[in-house]
Amino acid sequence: MQLSREEFTEKYGAHPDELKAIAEFAHRHGLAVKSSHPGRRHVVVEGTADQFSKAFGVSFKRYELPPAPRRKGMLVRRTTYRGRDGFIHVPRELSESIVGVFGLDNRPIGGRSNLPGDTPIAYPISVAQAAGLYNFPSPSASIGGQTIGIVSAASGSVGYVQSDLNQSYAAVGQTAPMVSAISPDGITNPAFAMNTTAAAAAGASTLTFGPSVSAGTYTSGTAIYGYMGTLYTLFITSVGTTTITFEAWDPATQTVVAGFVTPIPANTPVYFNVDGETTQDLAIAGLAAIGANLACYFIADTQPGWVDMIGRVLHPDPGDFPAGVNAPSVISSSYFISGGDDPDGLAAYGVTTSLMDAISQSFMDATILANGPTFCVASGDFGSNCGVGGAANQGFNNDICQSDKGRFNVGTPADFMTMGLHKSKDVNSNVLIGRDAMGLYALSSLCTHQCCDMNTTQGNQQVGTISATGIRCNCHISYYDNYGKPINTNQPAKQTLASYGLSLGCDGSIYVDTTKTVAATTRLMA
Length: 526
Fold this sequence. Notes:
Helices cover about 20% and strands about 25% of the residues. The chain is built from 10 helices and 27 strands. It has helices at about 5-10, 15-30, 50-55, 125-135, 140-145, 160-170, 275-290, 305-315, 345-350, 355-370; strands spanning about 30-35, 40-45, 60-65, 80-85, 145-150, 180, 190-195, 205-210, 220-225, 230-240, 245-250, 255, 270, 295-300, 330-335, 375, 405-410, 420-425, 430-435, 440-445, 455-460, 460, 465, 470-475, 480, 500-505, 510-515.
């Protein structure tokens, strides 16, 4: 039985005695209790670095991350953070109550994939087409009662503007909902737009907005404008009373230049701190479920940022949503926390096991709560390739490239009479069928690079091309011989395709069992 938030807090929330004991511990060290929430099982305390150092037995240092190379739409800047040295210590009597202490270290974690975009054989489809392929429900009253939550974990540097969403909805004859912007830790949507009040020539570097630009915030230092149907990126260098001076990204040379690459007429809208990812996430999610409300959670990309956001989703604050708008039933995030839950994956992103424990507990809470949300976090466009551990080890490893589990009818012996590889007659089986002098065998059709299914087509193009010597994966160009072994040492795919067992059914059909792998020498005499 699922519980209301009140019932959940009564049954599974932090006990008042635990909250009191933690508050007393904080007060003994001069720390102030800013808030406590029994349902979230959170206690927020504040104080000086010296007070925290003595309370938890750690020392602090300032660290600096190297700047990322500047590229289109991005600002070169150095990231500094507070890091701790030493294990975190808590009183023995509180050790069973405390799952994690977050915020002593405020380094950025996770991020968004910087891997390349679409595979070479990808082709665009509309949101409506994608929704149809997945049998999304048509707009109805039940959708209208639900809310989709989007996570923007950019520490308040970028956001969305409502006018972009209005335009996206209007393009398909719909009206966009007003997004509920939620700030678990006080981070607000920094995106806004201003129109120029004077023209600027190509080669100039200053735009006039007047009478004042002081109302805007310029956290990320980026802006975009449109000219002749193309968007151009600007980088802020200084802000005056009525003017802003920029550098510009030149798409022709792929470099930053001192002056504008186009003229900018008067009354041109200039958008500041706009994040294409957040805007895209809101638009696509909303258009896939027309009628649903939208919410956007602005958080710091830190451990406490994620913990506070998930707690706020499960147990909203009064006033988070206007009357008639429900808390989210689904949360979607293009930001990930870690490249893997193995030691390498966690260490690469500055994530502690206590954070994973806290998040796992919160996800379990979501299953108990009535109308508890489903959390969807992007795994990226490239399956298991999270960029941790190099090409041969894709972070989550290629165990994720597994065929659908089950028993599939892949054809009859007559379908596979010639030597070499053949595609299965059941495209859902994720297998290839091979024949050699010893008999028939089955291989996984999922490329070990990034799980492209070589047994299928995308659009009118084959994902896998079979030849006399084997098969080529056309996603990122990898070759396998007739036994599933990678041919070229410098190709993306490094691992051998898995082998599965075949059997001959009473109906004369060949069946593959993908619930377990078999030795590569296993054959069916048929």
